[in-house]
């Protein structure tokens, strides 16, 4: 049942609105607030599907209530109630984000029609938000172990913020999946996610790759080129294997984080960027700092939130789920029927030493599906999964 809050200082108008909405076949659950301050307190404590708000009120007027609600619960539609002399203000509230306005005294049909449309729109907004936050199947994080559930919980808390995140863990554990979850569940999901593998780019090119360059900055710079930070503007940049970044590039990344500005190589002009930074490494950065290979000030800028991705050997209880997931995925990719794994085969896989982590398990599952029997057996694992 949709919940509607009426914020109106005139008791007579409030009674009329409550009567109209309450008699709509018991469709709506209606709440009241006698002024803007009381209304805001109710909105803080509860989620309403629609707010009807008078414009002229003591203590806090309707425009102030609208602005507050847009900060507190931006998805909540607001319909403003205006007296004859408030029409200019009512129109202005539309520019500020109000859904619509209704003149006093309220017309029955106009009120009910506006309420229905506003509630339908709220439902669409909620559904779109849900779909936006649904992570692509390409980046599912499979597992129900305590460690994985903790990571998922961390992501839910952190994704809604712009806090920088440092993801650590051995190679092949799925650090990039965490980065994708953080981006796709964030308000930046409509913006780009730009991935940079710092280990794959030569040290002499990393600055140009990250920050771009101007024509003539170096021999092969034949034209101006934007870097990854500019490409990620409004979204997220994922700096994978950041422990392999040169110290000179680290200094420039630090400046970008401190000032939200970058400079292209060969130019001293500042370019403002709005980018969330997520970084990952398989190295012990504190040891790298002690060895003089990583800047301590950059580490503290990056590690606002630390997420440790466990090795597969530390989450063996997830192996049955992972095997089933990969078996389904591989069957879909190959256009074949999914192969099942016997309990003994799964148990044996759980006993292996997975030095290559999830990546290695995926390769082994594919090999077993190609070479094993119709139902992959313990013997198949012994024959084809051995290292």
TrEMBL record:
Keywords carried by this UniProt record: ATP-binding, DNA-binding, Nucleotide-binding, Phosphoprotein
Domain Response regulatory: 3-119
Domain Sigma-54 factor interaction, residue spans: 141-370
Pfam families in alphabetical order: AAA_lid_14, Response_reg, Sigma54_activat
Keyword Transcription regulation found: no
GO molecular function, one term: DNA binding
The keyword Kinase is assigned to this record: no
Residue numbers bearing the 4-aspartylphosphate modification: 54
Name of this chain's protein: DNA-binding NtrC family response regulator
Organism: Meridianimaribacter flavus
Lineage summary: Bacteria, Pseudomonadati, Bacteroidota, Flavobacteriia, Flavobacteriales
């Amino acid at each position: 049942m949709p919940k509607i809050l009426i914020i109106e200082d005139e008791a007579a108008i409030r009674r009329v609105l409550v009567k109209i909405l309450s008699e709509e076949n018991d469709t709506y659950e209606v709440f009241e607030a006698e002024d803007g301050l009381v209304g805001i307190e109710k909105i803080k404590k509860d989620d309403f599907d629609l707010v009807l708000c008078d414009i002229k009120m003591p203590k806090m007027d309707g425009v102030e209530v609208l602005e507050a609600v847009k900060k507190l619960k931006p998805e909540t539609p607001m319909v403003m109630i205006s007296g004859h002399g408030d029409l200019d203000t009512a129109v202005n509230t539309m520019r500020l984000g109000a859904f619509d306005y209704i003149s006093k005294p309220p017309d029955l049909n106009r009120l009910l029609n506006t309420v229905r449309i506003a509630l339908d729109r709220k439902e669409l907004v909620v559904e779109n938000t849900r779909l936006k936050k649904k992570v692509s199947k390409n980046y599912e994080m499979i597992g129900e172990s305590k460690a994985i559930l903790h990571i998922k919980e961390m992501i839910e808390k952190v994704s809604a913020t712009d806090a920088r995140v440092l993801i650590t863990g051995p190679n092949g554990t799925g650090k990039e999946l965490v980065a994708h979850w953080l981006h796709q569940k964030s308000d930046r999901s409509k913006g780009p996610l730009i991935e940079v593998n710092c280990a794959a780019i030569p040290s002499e090119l990393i600055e140009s790759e990250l920050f771009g360059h101007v024509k003539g900055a170096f021999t092969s710079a034949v034209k101006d080129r934007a870097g990854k930070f500019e490409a990620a503007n409004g979204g997220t940049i994922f700096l994978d294997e950041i422990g392999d970044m040169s110290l000179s590039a680290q200094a420039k990344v630090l400046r970008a984080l401190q000032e939200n500005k970058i400079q292209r190589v060969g130019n001293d002009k500042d370019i403002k960027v709005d980018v969330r930074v997520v970084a990952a490494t398989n190295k012990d950065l504190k040891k790298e700092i002690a060895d003089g290979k990583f800047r301590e000030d950059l580490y503290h800028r990056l590690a606002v939130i630390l997420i440790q991705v466990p090795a597969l050997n530390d989450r063996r209880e997830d192996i049955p789920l992972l095997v089933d997931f990969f078996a389904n995925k591989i069957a879909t990719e190959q256009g074949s029927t999914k192969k099942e794994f016997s309990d003994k085969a799964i148990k044996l896989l759980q006993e292996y030493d997975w030095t290559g982590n999830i990546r290695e398990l995926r390769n082994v599952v594919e090999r077993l599906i190609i070479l094993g029997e119709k139902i992959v057996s313990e013997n198949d694992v012994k024959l084809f999964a051995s290292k």
